[in-house]
Amino acid sequence: MRVQLSLANVIIPIAILVFAIGFFPYKPFLQGLATFEDDDYGAPPEAPFDKIIFMVVDALRSVKKVLAKVEVCSLISSGAAIPFTAHATSPTITMPRVKAITTGSVPSFLDVILNFAESDTTSTLAHQDTWLAQMKAKGNGIQVMYGDDTWLKLFPDTFGRSDGTTSFFVSIWSQDFTEVDNNVTRHIPDELRNDDWNAMVMHYLGLDHIGHKAGPRSPNMIPKQREMDSIVQTIYEAIETEKHLESVCLVLCGDHGMNDAGNHGGSSPGETSPALVFISPKLRNITEGVLCPVDGSSDDLQYYTTVEQSDVAPTLAGLLGIPVPKNNLGVFIRQFLGFWKAADSIQLLQRNALQLRRIAEATYGTSLDEPSTPISCSTASSDVEELACLWKRASDLTQIQPGSPQSGSEAAIDALLKFCHRAQNMLSGTASNYNLTALSIGIALAAVAAGLAAYACLPLLLNSVTFSIGFSAICLGYGIMMFASSYVEEEQHFWYWTSSAWMAYLFFQRLRCSRGTTASALSALVVLGGLRITRRWNQTGQKYAGEPDIVREISKHNYLLWSAVFLTYLDLMRRLLRRAYQRLPARLRSIMAITLCFAAFMFKLSFTEADAPELLSGIRVDLLSKLHNSSLVTQARSVFLGVGLSILYTALYERSARTMNIKNYTNSAGQVFHDLITLFLITQSRVTNIPLFLVFESQINLLDSLELSPFEITITSLLFQYVSFFAFGGTNAISSVDLSNAYNGVSGYNIVGVGVLTFVSNWTGPIWWMSAGILLLRSHAAARAGRSAAPIQRGGFPGRESEPSDGKKAIWSSHIALLSMFTTISLLSVMVACAALRTHLFIWTVFSPKYLYAMAWSIANHILINILCGSLLFWSN
Predict the structure, then answer these.
(1) Transmembrane segments in this chain: where (predicted)?
(2) Any bridge partners for residue 53, and if so which?
(3) What is the 3-state secondary structure (H, E, C) of 730-747?
(4) Where in the chain is the domain with CATH 3.40.720.10?
(5) In the β-sheet with 275-279, what is the strand arrangement from edge to edge?
């Protein structure tokens, strides 16, 4: 069994990597800058603008009034601004969206990973054609940038002046609401007086941070929108009054939006509908303005004309008189053609169409001039033939002679735009060329791993038909569910209902079992009641995200929340007082346990005061004033150091106790490790989720009284790991990744430290239930060895030397075999679903994020947590 299991778990990361290479290819791009000499259309038409101020308000979604104050709305109504709703394709996170805005291309989903690796440079746009690179090549000024340092990483050596702010350092949210934006705004007056630049980029982060913390309806949102509106007003007034700014185009936009929970990364209307506004007094020459704020409501946030976010790149190219970037898939926005005569408008669209045609011919490997196609394209048998037909029709209509009627010009413009939009749709859909060979090899490797794990589990499954049917049903049911997008989005319900059914089974089984008692059956029933509380704690998933739940209700009653939090810490301190720091004097043991828990509790209070002060509203905590001189980083490090040293002391003491054969020695290492891990996990949790640990602790004590078999313990641990992940607010969407505790104890961005803390803070529940499952297995092993094991709440497991080695090894091997079987089957199901549905409408919004989560569950949670950490806890003596 051990050989098969080892081989299966070695294959898992290999299969994941091979499949990812085929599923997330890093798309090739055309190098170099486009030039006007590449076409036969002569000199480009005169551009209405020669400078641009590009103002990105992170997570600014399309709303009725664009911003909360009146300035932007008044500009829209007067015709000095033209608003749009920019459609941002998934993934709706900063780096891919900045790529789309500047290159006009469709970014790879691999950028989701690169977006979190702030030190990464492989995603740089230094060698790609962008409108920023074109403005630099134009040579009439430098480029300047202030705000999110993602721009500095994407465009190295581009900006002559810059001041970047990290977008992920969110350890003190309340400061991030103002200070990160003030750092941008302070540069504006000087830059508006300077005349040595032709492009100024500003990327504000405060609104996004408010959304992540408290959602789009936070009381902090309106003041922030008013602040952004006032900045627009300041810039617009300078454009009107300063001579050197009269040909400046101000673009206000969001890189993405946010959902009703304040997060982003997925495909909900709020996330994919950022605002986009072009602002300049010159726009009054081509538009009379539109109504602002708009009437009525729109569930999909489409308040204004919708354009693709990639359309920004070719539109800016035309407005600024620069070539369209080589890798662009965007289409010039029609509303701006009013700046030019018909012939010049056609020339702009011809350049856009020619650039798209070149990409299409390179993609499909055929010339669009080869087929002899009719004017009517209704009989085209393929997308390529249809595109060739549209190209021919546009070419025929653009042969404009002097004096041609205006209707002919409009027909040519319509034909060119129709070709461009069709090419855009086709090329965007083929933006990721899957490596089918790599996909097949990855699936084959996963199938081999699943076969090995199943073979290792076969003796276990044959021993109990009832358990084998139940476990197989969980594996197969979960696998089948991966082929339906709606079930993937609402996966939590599978685990909620499955775990409830499992506890109901244990209840009835204990009533019928001769070794069971009514008390043990009632214990199963109480655990089932705890599951009801757990599943209602955070409303998660996609359909009901943001709906009322226990967290929202308890947050309205601060005293109730903090009473539950305090009881959780008090219960943990009680357990440490009874078991931790053995061999030390009783008074010193008490001091150490109390000090550690008190430090952890005060850190959480201080963090909440900085992060969510509304949760402390009405609560007087005088001790906080004494901690103001101590930074949150120092406080967190103190807690982590205390936990680490306590774990080290426990391990060393257990070893010396066995070596020296200390009298009155009680082996409680497993329980102490569990308690210290719990303290660390509480520190990495949102304060509103801390009371869940009290529920979990009650459940584990009740489960211990059920005298579960190893098979039952493994299934229970597996089910509760997934239940707790969703109960803490997790989903299969990138937007649910919680970064609020990713910087505890970190003074700056560190990819390893932040990565580990991010994983722990998002997998807190599964890690806890891994540890709890190990305690139950140790308790069973102790009972099997013929020793009377004290209940978990009273501590003390017999030592390893009194247990039959083979029996304990068999228990552990069976536990790993069952977990490996489920992991490999679930991973194989996700891979097959992604490969089979790679042309599905929701492949990038549902199935691709699910694969990323499957990677985390298989490698980080299964191999690192369940196997590696679990083995250390199981064999710790």
Answers:
(1) 7-26, 436-458, 465-488, 494-511, 589-607, 632-653, 711-731, 751-777, 816-839, 851-875
(2) 200, 250
(3) CCCCHHHCCCCCCCCCCC
(4) 47-329
(5) 161-165, 142-148, 197-204, 51-57, 248-253, 275-279, 81-87, 306-308
Give the residue carrying structure tokens 């690169």.
Answer: 114
Phi first, then psi: what are they for 253, rounded to 5°?
-155, 165
Query: What confidence category does residue 171 fall into, taking pLDDT thresholds of 50, 70 and 90?
Result: very low
84 in helix, strand or coil?
Answer: strand
Stated pTM of the model: 0.80
pLDDT at 57: 93
Q: Tell whether the model's pLDDT for residue 213 goes beyond 90.
A: no
CA-to-CA separations, 796 to 578, 676, 801, in angstroms, rounded: 10, 16, 15
Q: Which CATH class is domain 47-329?
A: alpha beta
Closest CA to 719 of 511, 507, 503, 488: 503
pLDDT given for residue 807 in this prediction: 75
Q: Which of 570, 532, 525 is nearest to 549 (CA)?
A: 532
State which amino acid sits at residue 298: S
What distances in angstroms separate CA 710 from CA 25, 320, 542, 671, 814, one per listed residue? Answer: 42, 70, 35, 18, 8
The predicted structure's pLDDT at residue 392: 87
Cα–Cα distance for residue pair 228/231, rounded to 1 Å: 5
Instruction: Over range 574-583, report the average pLDDT.
Output: 85
Please report, in angstroms and rounded to a whole number, the separation of the first and last CA atoms in the chain. 25
Alpha helix locations (H) across 202-268?
206-214, 221-241
Contact criterion met (CB below 8 Å) for 749 and 119: yes
**Each residue's pLDDT tens digit, 9-68:** 999 999 999 999 888 866 667 778 888 876 677 788 999 999 999 999 998 987 766 665
Element containing residue 277 per DSSP (H, E) = strand 275-279
Nearest Cα neighbor of 430 from 360, 369, 495 is 360
Q: Across the strands, what pairs with 104?
A: none
Parallel, antiparallel, or unpaired: how do β-strands 81-87 and 142-148 relate?
A: unpaired
Residue 251 pLDDT more than 90? yes
Q: Of the segments 68-72, 115-119, 816-820, which one has the largest average pLDDT value?
A: 816-820
Q: Between 518-535 and 492-512, two packed helices, what is the crossing angle to 10 degrees?
A: 170
Tokens of 188: 């504006």
The answer to whether 390 touches 349, Cβ cutoff 8 Å, is no
The tokens describing 220, both together, are 């902090």
Q: Cβ(158)–Cβ(143) under 8 Å?
A: yes
Q: Which of 801, 767, 752 is nearest to 781 (CA)?
A: 801
The tokens for 60 are 């600014």
> Distance (Å, rounded) from C-alpha 721 to C-alpha 717?
6
Helix, coil or strand: residue 400: coil
Residue 690 has pLDDT above 60, yes or no: yes
Q: How confident is the model at residue 291 (pLDDT cuts 50, 70, 90)?
A: confident
Residues 6+ apart with CB under 8 A from 766: 721, 722, 724, 725, 861, 865
